[in-house]
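TetR family transcriptional regulator
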Amino acid sequence: MTSRQTSGAPLSGPPAGLRERKKRRTREALLHAALELFDAQGYERTTVDEIVEAVDVSQRTFFRYFANKEAAAFAIQDAVDARFLLELRQRPMSEAPFEALRRAALNTWRGVADAAEDDVTAELRLRTYRMIESTPALVAAHMRRGVDLERRTSLLIAEREGLDPETDPRPGVAVAAFAGVMRLTGRLWGRRQDANVTSLHEMTELHLGLLHTTLLGPWRS
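Predicted structure tokens:
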């Protein structure tokens, strides 16, 4: 067949949609393998070689999707954080800052089933959370990531309100209170036997709802 006869369908490989689905499946397989190995034998004892061997791909493929092991360990949390910031950006400007934070958090858990990593079961999410909390190197990384998320959230709140966060402390104060409640909620959720996305949503709503009365209302009645 001559080149003139090949002017029909291109011979450049599978369609873009198929390639993207294959990339997503590969990433999900690597993520599942990494989280299962981290949980089974410990984060620090797990090597990238073991992860790629479980999926039957090369190291080069792993690093195409994850910068390092830490990136794989926090992939689920990164997706949740990104969704939260997106939800916060979309909150109506008529909402007060803390109400926008609260609704963004609740909508994040309500819509987490749409996240790319939602094929990870609730049980594996919980085991991953506990693994991070029990691994010193990851606890430190978790704290760094939390500080960075608070910074980005404060900047977003300041932008919504037309404030300069360098001179007005209110965005930082609001986000610090919010983040503290969210950390407490995460720790309590991690101890539950029925830990799942629904229970996390319920606990988040309960604890954020208690913040105002806890700080300003009387405790004795």
